[in-house]
Amino acid sequence: MFILAPVREAGGGRGLLLVASHTPARRFSEPEHEALTAFAEHASLVLTDARLTDQIDRALHDSLTGLANRALLTERLAERIEAGFPSPALFTLDLDSFRDINDRIGHRAGDALLIELAQRLATAAGEDALVARLDGDAFAVLAHAEGAPELGNELLAVISDAFEIEGRVLRTTASIGLVQSGSNPDQFLREADLAMHRAKDAGGGRLITFEPRMHEELIRRIQLQDDFARALDAGEIIAHFQPKIDLRTAGPIGVEALVRWDHPQRGLLSPGEFLELAESGGQMRALTERVIEFSTRVAGDWWHSGLGLQLSVNLAGSIFSEPGYRIDEFVKRALASAGLPGQAMQFEVTEDALMADPETATEILERLSRLGATISIDDFGTGHSSLSRLKSLPIDELKIDRSFILNISDEKDKTIVRSTIHLAHQMGLQVVAEGVETEMAWRLLRSMGCERAQGFLIAKPLPAREVPAWLASWNQRARELSSTRRAELASAPI
Prior knowledge:
This protein has 3 domains: 2-60, no CATH class; 70-210, 2-Layer Sandwich (Alpha-Beta Plaits), CATH 3.30.70; 227-491, TIM Barrel, CATH 3.20.20.450. 48% of the residues lie in helices and 22% in strands. It has helices spanning 30-60, 70-83, 98-105, 107-125, 148-160, 185-201, 212-231, 275-280, 284-304, 327-338, 351-356, 358-370, 387-392, 402-406, 411-426, 439-447, 467-482, 486-491; strands at residues 2-9, 12-20, 88-95, 130-135, 138-144, 163-165, 168-170, 174-179, 206-209, 237-246, 252-263, 267-269, 310-314, 345-350, 374-380, 397-400, 430-434, 452-454. The strands form 4 sheets. An 8-stranded mixed beta barrel has the order 10-11-13-14-15-16-17-18. The chain has a 5-stranded mixed β-sheet with strand order 4-5-3-8-9, sandwiched between helices. β1 and β2 (12-20) form a beta hairpin. α3 runs antiparallel to α4 (107-125), α4 (107-125) runs antiparallel to α5 and α9 runs parallel beside α10. The longest helix is centred in the N-terminal third of the chain and has 31 residues, at 30-60. The radius of gyration is 34 Å and the shape is elongated. It starts with a strand and ends with a helix.
């Protein structure tokens, strides 16, 4: 004889609890029935509690690494803040090259790296700390404020040690943000992330501690982003113009259009304050078009008044990566609107912009060249272009980066400049030196055969309205700089 009682888990059937007797024809009493039912109900509660405990544990931990997740981190951080002592410190960190690792060796190996990284972080942080995986390759460490900077440096060290994954040796670094005070978990996480992104913007592989000014800068950045979208359509994007001269005659030959933002409240803003906004917001095309529109209108007025200055405009690398975009068609319309011939324009492109997608860049530059525009390689010597690639491009000019010109008295930089000029001439190209700020640099460059120069010795970037006045006053200065000064040249080391 036997009796049965159902065992349930979380409201659903789990099984049966069976009790049997060895005595034939034995009948179980009512109290025995009640005891079995009570035991089955207790088993049901235990199973349900175990299931709920497992669910809670999985809800508070990362499935890949076993570390705490964001929810558990937030809970423990709130407890530390409420307790008040010891004061909490929060690190957030993000790997600097994890996407490249995933792309290069696959997601399985990437996951293996994250698992080993989690173990390293937990060991370095110690038993009193809580290590969490927030998402992807983003982690956090909740520790005590005392000794936090030292712990941050230890975290950097264990991350930078080589990883051996599936027979490969991998190396990476991390950007780490640290915050040591706050009134609630959201503030801690937000400010640690701000500091972490500041570390990443600074090149990665470093620890930066949050400062209140970072929050103020973020607010300013967000406001600038909103303002910039409006500025593109409000006529606030303008250009200043820096003259270029012929070193052989000291005569002016052109100007480079340098973008400025005429902000209605903040005044004139330089490119360093908004170019990154345009890049991150996908607005470089619109910005480039505004500069071309503005500068061709100005140059058209100059040409029609007898000032035949060639206009140079910079092209960002993103212009070459936008599928189907025909910037040459836009330039053609701008030239027609301003009444300018194609040869009135030059486009400056950096080496790195060309090397990102050489085939597309070549096609675009050839189209611009067919309009009559000339092409200049900007900041030459700082990029990663190959001479064979440059040889195949429709370029007319090399522009030596200012870093070499500013230190031209240094023998190594002098050798680089002289060799670059010789190389350009062998390729049939003219040379512009940017960053000419001293008469010595002027004379050395001219003696080396450099044809053109640009820099503060000649003129700073000028508003359009000041360019005609500068041209009128330049003649006297040009005569002074054009004098041969044979005695000085004879004694100057070349």
